[in-house]
Amino acid sequence: MPSQVPALPAFHVARPRLLDLLDAGGEVPLTAVVAPPGAGKSITLAAWIHDRCPDAVWVPCTERDRDPVVFLGHVAVALRAAQGDRWLDAVELLGERDPDPEDAVDAILKELEDGTAVIVLDDVHVAREARAVLSRLVERLPAGSRVVTGSRGDPPLAIHRLRAGGLCLEVREADLRLTHDEVDELVRALGAGLSIEATRILSERANGWAAGVQMAAIALRDEADPERFLAEFSGSSRIVSDYLVEEVLARQTETLQRFLLRTSVLDELEPDACAAVTGHDDAATLLRLLDTSALFVVPTGNDTYRYHELFRDMLRYQLWATSRDGAREAHRRAAEWYEGCGTIASALEHLVAAGDEERAYALLQAELVQMTIREGAVAARAAIAAVSDSDATLDADRMVTIGFGFSVVGALTSGDAWLQRAVRQSDELDDAGRRRLTVARAYLAGQEGDASRALGLLEGLVPRDSDDDVVVATPALELHARVWLHDFRGARDAAARSRTLRPLGVVYDEIMVGGALSWSVCVEGSLCEAEQLADKALAAAAELSLEDHSMLGESLRTRGWLCFERGDLQGAEVALERSVMLLEKPGPARSLVSTAALARVWLSDGRSQDAIQALSTARACLRPGVDSPLWALLDGLDARIALVEGDRERAEAITQTLAPSLRRRRLEARLELAAHKPDAALAVLESCDPMTPRERVDVLMLRARCDDELRSPNADASLAAAVDAARREGFTFALAEELFTCARRVGSLLRSAPIDDFAAAVLALLERVVPLPEPAARAALVEPLTDREVVVLRYMTSRLTTSEIASELYISVNTVRTHTKAVYRKLGVASRQDAVAEAHRLGIR
Q1: Which residues have C-beta within 8 Å of that of residue 279, sequence separation ≥ 6?
Q2: Which of 44-48, 286-290, 743-747, 791-795 has the lowest mean pLDDT?
Q3: Which of 89, 488, 554, 606 has CA atoms 20 to 30 A from the CA of 564?
């Protein structure tokens, strides 16, 4: 949820001179408020927003924002919360697997060209690694918009260049110092009645430092000898930290002291979190007491607060100084609470602070995929960032975990960088660590679709029961790679080998391995066995309430393809869209396979433009230059689309780029048939040596087409052989689609014997004249919208992001994008707003 502008404390002193100063920065892109802790930066910025600039966007930065992607994600989410649909593109771009921060900045800048915004970045000094993107944002900011920063030092951007160009307004410590009158007003607001002379002394001693005045006033409320206190008081931060704040803390009850110290580990003081850390049942009451006592808490929402930074830092120092075990225990309790709430990034931060790095890395590995599915790529990257900067990352074994973690969320460039670091320090690893590194590198290769490299790394590696779970799970990785290489026997062997190893639970043993095997068997052409395996995996997931688990991707792909093979194109689309949705972030290469299958379904549904768009989306899942057998899958489908669209020249050009294979020969045969050369097609088929049931069915169907066009005396026998092969596994749609040109003869052959389920299904499909025609036209469109495109169009009128629309429709983000682009193309528009307007004009509801 976006952060709200902090409420002003009850003792807030109006300072119009500062608000006027901030107003004066309206003509320059940057206003930098720079001062040490306790100078009043955050309260001044909040007061300015409340009083002068209510439409400003408030973005409080935390340590997580050191990652440029996380930082920009928080900015984009805050902009969207304040200004709605304008920022959907930027939010969605940052939700990609491995977004380019510069592209995200440019998306924000593009939107600012159409409307202004004031972005207030508080505590921006922590976003130190976001320097490049913040500089790009500020330096290219369109006129009318501005960025206002609050920081302890110069903000992380090229401020000297902006200063030289007169492009920034700087508000420094001297500007923030309290005047004598402001000191007097603040002291009175805090309930410390001082004489005029005493107020003057305090103002001089504190040198206008707001935190010093506040803490002195609190101490003076119960001070019997104010003059003596002020005579000894120095407003320097060192003296305050060493003496005054401890004096304030010492005057509280023992219960309140313990509460203050233990809760200081929390960035946000939420009653349940405070109760978990302290064991205090009525944490909400204590928080309200702190607020009314002006003990350095700032309200952030309903019953939620945060400590003033200086006070929080002092409390944390005192906690560690007086009880290191107590500090670690507080962090451990906080981690348990956040883990229970599913806020994994915060849990990891507290585990690292507690020194429990082993638990932190175990939690990261266990929760990363689920968190990616549940909260998106930005949240997952934040979780990795919570551990990736700890001292433990100097350890090569930790580097392996972080690299593997980035690979799991699909951030393959970052994953590769960490694993390369681990490789350079691999001499520090023991045998188990080197095995983990090998598997992590193989996993990364698999995520990139490089099946040969993945298998090469795994060659000779035999998992042991003592190995990490990641290593024990290598058969599943091997299974995927072998399917992509069409090594179906090797895939079955890998699945069988997984059952001889230490059990890893139902999710791995039945859902992950069973689902991957179901797809291998499906591609092989053993449809009945594939259905049994997929149904078993899906039933196991349903029993465990894992309907949204990424491991279901293969089982759902199998189910979708089985629907396709049996002529249920709608059922195929639903299952395949869901498969893509579950795989698109954590499994780029596996998502590609599901997207390609969906494109094939759309092609058979007469939706060639949607198929082309899906194919483009699938190609983006592979890094250019990677040696992957999946390129051939995509190229073969591309050639098939070109053939359907009648572009034989393009189809032939693509086919010639393919390596010699059965896939290429089948395409060559189809090209000859498209050129009305059945004899040449038959000659190509003579060189085919099909090895799997699916390959045999394809070759037999193509031969039957050739013999039918040649009016060969073998035509009846060829047709009967094709029908018999298709009947064995239930290839109903393939038979009807491939042989629709001789539909009458197919129908006669099927009716010559008692009609079974297979024959009835094929006859029903033939009656629909496959390939299926385009749906009936809607409104006045030359190319009609499909039913699903109309549904997506309706959602465009909402403020939902593409990801949220996908969740509502239970389809993948890429599928929504495909539908959206199709809507834009068919309506002749280039934006969401224009699409809604044009649909309204045409009467499309």
Answers
A1: none
A2: 791-795
A3: 488
Q: Is 505 left (phi over 0), alpha (psi -120 to 50) or beta?
A: left
Neighbours of 1 (CB within 10 A): 6
| Sequence letter at residue 172 | R
The strand pair at 57-60 and 118-122 is best described as parallel
Q: Give the C-alpha separation, 52 to 16, whole Å.
A: 10
> What DSSP state is assigned to residue 661?
S
Q: What is the pLDDT of residue 600?
A: 95
Buried b (16+ CB within 10 A) or exposed e, 803-820: bbbbeebebbbbbbbbbb
Q: Which residue has the higher pLDDT, 162 or 524?
A: 524
Taking each helix axis as running N to C, give the angle between helix 344-353 and helix 377-388, from 0 to 180 degrees, rounded to the nearest 10: 0
In degrees, rounded to 5, the angle at the alpha carbon of residue 408 between the alpha carbons of residues 405 and 409 is 95
Q: How does pLDDT run across 708-736, given as a tens digit for each residue?
A: 999 999 899 999 999 999 999 899 999 99
Q: Are 438 and 458 in contact (CB under 8 A)?
A: yes
89 closest CA partner among 814, 809, 801, 833: 801
Q: What is the pLDDT of residue 238?
A: 52
User: What whole-number distance in Å separates Cα of residue 219 and Cα of residue 245?
Assistant: 9
pLDDT in tens, 478-512: 999 999 999 999 999 999 999 999 888 787 888 88
Asked if 368 contacts 386 with a C-beta cutoff of 8 angstroms, the reply is no
Contact 461, 474 (CB under 8 A): yes
- Residue showing tokens 């035999």: 462
If pLDDT is split at 50, 70 and 90, which confidence band does 794 have?
confident
Smallest CA-to-CA distance from 113 within 82, 144, 78 is with 144
Q: Is 133 exposed, middle or buried (0-12, 13-18, 19+ CB in 10 A)?
A: buried
Both tokens of residue 834?
């224009």
HSE-up (13 A, CA, CB side) for residue 568:
12
**Residue 729 exposure: Cα atoms within 13 Å on the Cβ side:** 29
390: left (phi over 0), alpha (psi -120 to 50) or beta: beta
CB atoms within 10 A of CB 389: 15
Range 746-773 average pLDDT: 81
Dihedral pair phi/psi, residue 98, rounded to 5°: -140, 70
Write the burial class of residue 17 (CB in 10 Å: 0-12 exposed, 13-18 middle, 19+ buried): exposed
Using CA atoms, how far apart are residues 547 and 511, in angstroms rounded to an integer? 11
**Taking the CB of residue 625, how many other CB atoms lie within 10 A of it?**
6
pLDDT, position 776: 38
CA distances from residue 59 to 81, 249, 356 in whole angstroms, order as listed: 11, 31, 30
The answer to whether the pTM exceeds 0.70 is: no
Can you give the C-alpha Rg of the chain in angstroms?
33
- Provide the 8-state DSSP code for 19: H
In 51-95 the beta strands, taken as DSSP E runs, fall at 57-60
For residue 451, the SS3 value is helix
CA distances from 692 to 386, 495, 695, 728 (A): 48, 18, 5, 13
pLDDT band at 373 (very low <50, low <70, confident <90, very high): very low
Phi-psi region of 798 (alpha: psi -120 to 50; beta: other; left: phi over 0): beta
Over residues 640-676, the pLDDT tens digits come to 999 988 899 999 999 999 999 999 999 999 999 999 9
Half-sphere exposure of 242 (CA within 13 A, CB side): 7
Model confidence at 778, pLDDT cuts 50, 70, 90, reads: very low
Residue 342 CA to residue 502 CA, distance in Å, equals 28
